[in-house]
Every structure is written in C-alpha cells, then in structure tokens.
Amino acid sequence: MLATSNIFILARYELNCYSQPMTKKILILAGDGIGPEVTKQAVKILDKIGGFEIDYADIGGIGYDNHGHPYPEETKQKAKQADSILLGAVGGEKWDNLDFSLKPERGLLGIRKDLQLFANLRPAIVFDELVGASSLKEELVKGLDIMIVRELTGDIYFGEPRGIETRDGKRVGINTMIYDEDEVKRVSRVAFELAQKRGGKVCSVDKANVLEATLMWREEITKLHAAEFQDCQLSHMYVDNAAMQIIRQPKQFDVIVTGNIFGDILSDAAAMLTGSLGMLPSASLGDKYSLYEPVHGSAPDIAGQDKANPIATIMSLAMMFRYTFADGATADKIENACKAALAEGYRTGDIMQDGCKLAGTEEIGDLITAKI
Ligand code: NAD
C-alpha cells in the first residue's frame, strides 16, 4: 500500500463511488473550547449539500470527561468506519494537570498515529480581501498560495530511545530523529502529486549538512524524483535558510515537503503570513484514512461566546471534498462562498478591519452556507 499515495487511492475510490452511488459517512470530532462552535458551521454546509451520514464522537478533554481517555475506544472504532473525519480542536486549562498520557493533546497524537495519517497538508493562502491582515508588506503576500507538506507520524516526536534519565550523576534528556526510506518516499509522493496539480515545484527542506537522518531523506527524495516525477522540479533547502526564505520571499515556493519537527515550525511561520489562525485549514492523510481540522487550537479565551472564526474549519471541509472525495467542484464552491462573505465585508473579531461588519460565528456560518 505504501507505493501509492492516499490522494490517488481515494480518487480511485471516488470513481467507484460514482458508479455505485452511496452515502458518505463523515465523523465529526468537535472536541473542546471553540471546537463544537466551528464544526457546527461546517455541518450546516454538509446539510445544505446533502447526501451525508453524519456521526459524532468525543476526542480530547471531552473524551477524557465522558470516557476516561482523550482518544476513547468508541471514537477509534467510529473513526475507522468513516469515509472521512472533521475535527474541531482539543485542549483547555481544565485538563492541564492530568497525567501526560491523558492530556487532550494526546488524543490528537493518538488518532494521527492510529490512523497512520502520515502527510499533513497545510496551505497558506492569502485572500485579496485579507491582504492587510498579514504582518508582511502587501507585495510580498498578495496572491500567496503555498502548500506545506509535513510528515506527521515519524521523526524525533516518535523516535526511540527517548526520555529523561541520569547519566554520571547528571540528568539528560534524549530524543531520537529517525526516518526509514519508506516513510520518506510515501510523504514525498504526496508532495509530488500535489505539485503536479499546482505549480510543478517541490522544495524539500532538511538539514542534510549535519543530520544523517535528513541526509538519507534528501537522497531518497532525489531518487524518487528521478524515477517517477521528472515532470516536477525538485530543489533542496536547509531548514534555517527555509525559515528565512518563507519570510523574505514566500512566493518563491509552490510545495514544501519536510519532516515532522521542521514542518511543525515552518508551517506555523507560513501560517502567520496569512494573518490569522482563524483562516487556516489542514488535512492529514494516510493510505486509508483522512482527517481534516483547522490549524488553530481550542481558543478557551473566546469559547462559547460566538466569537470564533469558523472559516478555517469550513476551508478544511473544502479540502475534504478536494482530496478525499476527489470533488474539486464542491471544494471550489465552498471556498468561493467563504471569499464572497469576506468580499461583502463580514468579519469575525480576529480579522476585523475598518469599514467591515462584525459578525459572530453563527452569522458567518449562515452567510457562507447561504452562498453555496
Ligand atoms: P489557540 O489557537 O487556541 O489560540 C491562540 C489565539 O488565537 C487565542 O487568542 C484565540 O482566541 C485565537 N484564535 C484561535 N482560533 C481562533 C478562531 N477560530 N477565531 C478567532 N480567534 C481564534 O492556541 P492556544 O491559546 O495556544 O491554545 C489553547 C488550547 O488549545 C491549549 O490547550 C492548546 O494545547 C490547544 N491547542 C490545540 C490544537 C488542536 O486541537 N489542533 C492546536 C493548538 C493548540
């Protein structure tokens, strides 16, 4: 299964679906804080489009409260039966003192690992209406559309040995950066396949000058490129330079592919080019399963106040249509509806600008739904 990426497998699956129409099952994992508010707006859109079986399950803090675990058994089972999953956010002060293994965030790591969601796609797109919200100059970000592909199930976050121990009377902290060639190839394939449908350029980010794990990464992606993806342009960049280039001249990039820890940091830097966390969607894909979620967290400071921006979650739903259901037309409709609401001047507080109309989570959700 590793030889072919999720995007193609699911596209083929979709073709089968068209020949035998069937209802798609979507699992909503609303989670904590603003999670239920923002996922509710995406469900309005699904209801409007119609033809979906929507189910719900707990994850994160609410999973712990209701089942004693942030990734409960029932959620595990439902996740594996769903055609795709939409997640809100997890976390909050209430669960901060729990044992590490029971914290809400472990629910997220748990589901990613359990479903082998190895490729995390984070687009950084700047809408013309929000170009002023970026902290960079307008000419640097106007029209920006880059895609960061972060490997999500390997690297230093999962490598062994790990831990804190005492050596020669001193405490030492240990983590291990490790990749095998199959892990590199499968995520690189996703990056190349995306580039084929975009600008045809992949920039692989590593630290091959000092880290052997990433030297192997560079060698494997280079071999894969030569063997299967010569229609794309492949370049390599050290991570320190990449961090600088993303801020200096972000439009030079089309698709960036990198390992888990470098991707964690670079994707947050790229996220801020667009101005607000409330606008950023993401997809996590494996060979068999897919999960879509906004990049932001549970925003406890505004939870339950109808202030959260639901656009990141709605754009995550658009990604679900594009990548899991191979239905670009519906994805375009959802994205255009978001742009139309912004063009009419409606804004939640996080992206408020002079002369715009302040709207709540529900109102923005209704406006976008009405435009589909
Ligand atoms: P956060 O993303 O929740 O919030 C950061 C800031 O951005 C806050 O001021 C918040 O109000 C604002 N914000 C975030 N999303 C918004 C939205 N949709 N609309 C308007 N404003 C929005 O990050 P944090 O405050 O560092 O973390 C809060 C909790 O979320 C923590 O428990 C953290 O562990 C968790 N967290 C979860 C995820 C996830 O579920 N994927 C990601 C990051 C943090």
Write the layout of secondary structure elements.
Elements: H1 6-19, E1 24-31, H2 35-49, E2 52-56, H3 61-67, H4 73-81, E3 84-89, H5 104-114, E4 119-125, H6 138-141, E5 145-151, E6 163-167, E7 170-174, H7 181-196, E8 201-206, H8 212-228, E9 233-238, H9 239-248, E10 255-258, H10 260-273, E11 281-285, E12 290-294, H11 311-324, H12 328-343, E13 346-347, E14 357-358, H13 361-370
Helix pairs in contact: 2-11, 2-13, 7-8, 9-10, 11-12, 12-13
Bound molecules: nicotinamide-adenine-dinucleotide (NAD).
Structure description:
With 372 residues, this protein is α/β, with parallel strands linked by helices. The chain folds into two domains: 1-122 and 275-372, Isopropylmalate Dehydrogenase (3-Layer(aba) Sandwich), CATH 3.40.718.10; 135-273, Isopropylmalate Dehydrogenase (3-Layer(aba) Sandwich), CATH 3.40.718. Helices cover 42% and strands 20% of the residues. The protein has helices at 6-19, 35-49, 61-67, 73-81, 104-114, 138-141, 181-196, 212-228, 239-248, 260-273, 311-324, 328-343, 361-370; strands spanning 24-31, 52-56, 84-89, 119-125, 145-151, 163-167, 170-174, 201-206, 233-238, 255-258, 281-285, 290-294, 346-347, 357-358. Strands 2-1-3-12-11-4-5-10-8-9 form a ten-stranded mixed sheet, sandwiched between helices. A two-stranded antiparallel sheet has the order 6-7. The longest helix has 17 residues, at 212-228. The protein is globular. The two termini are 36 Å apart.
